[in-house]
Amino acid sequence: MRISALTESDRADWEPLWQGYLTFYETELADAVTDATFARLVAGDGMHGAIARDDEGRAVGFVNWLPQSSTWTTGAYCYLEDLFVAPDVRGGGVGRALIAHVRAWAEDAGCDQVYWLTADGNARARTLYDKVADLSGFVHYQITLAPEPA
């Protein structure tokens, strides 16, 4: 397996994975949001993305992350926002490798922490997360201000 930064040439391989991710979370986004997200990930301007490919070059997963300032440290935190692995290769180490990729990036960038959220019922992913990270015990709240049109 090979993990590399997203480039413009990855769009055709990334998008079906992205759509699978959105379907998993029962979400639809307008095409303009997907287009803008991909452009920002490729630009690496505040947001970062990587794609995992198997030995045959097939895209099998992706991860997106961004650094952010924190009031609890002089350094930054790294928010792992999106992680998706193709269903047919789950359990084969792709998710673990993508998380390790972000961790390495965050360490190189001087971040003090990598963190992420997942759905409470995402049992399969949580099995992995419990092995590679500590459950924080925090409960997530949100106020949606301007939902994107689907």
Average pLDDT confidence is: 94
What percent of residues are in strands? 15-25%
- Tally of separate helices: 4
CATH class: Alpha Beta
Specify the biggest β-sheet. 5 strands, mixed
Oligomer: single chain
Strand order of the largest sheet: 1-2-3-4-5
Tally of structural domains? 1
Here the CATH topology equals: Aminopeptidase
Helical fraction: 25-40%
Q: What global shape is seen?
A: globular
- How are helices and strands ordered from N to C? EHHEEEHEH
> Nearest-angstrom radius of gyration?
15 Å
Q: Can you count the beta strands?
A: 5
Low-confidence stretches: none
End-to-end Cα distance: 34 Å
Q: Helices and strands: which structural class?
A: alpha+beta
Label the CATH architecture. Answer: 3-Layer(aba) Sandwich
The CATH homologous superfamily is named Gcn5-related N-acetyltransferase (GNAT)
Structure explained in plain terms:
The chain has 150 residues and is of the alpha+beta class. The protein has one domain: 3-Layer(aba) Sandwich (Aminopeptidase). It has 4 helices and 5 strands. It has helices at 11-24, 31-43, 94-108, 123-132, and strands at residues 2-5, 48-53, 59-69, 76-85, 111-115. Strands 1-2-3-4-5 form a 5-stranded mixed β-sheet, sandwiched between helices. The radius of gyration is 15 Å and the shape is globular.
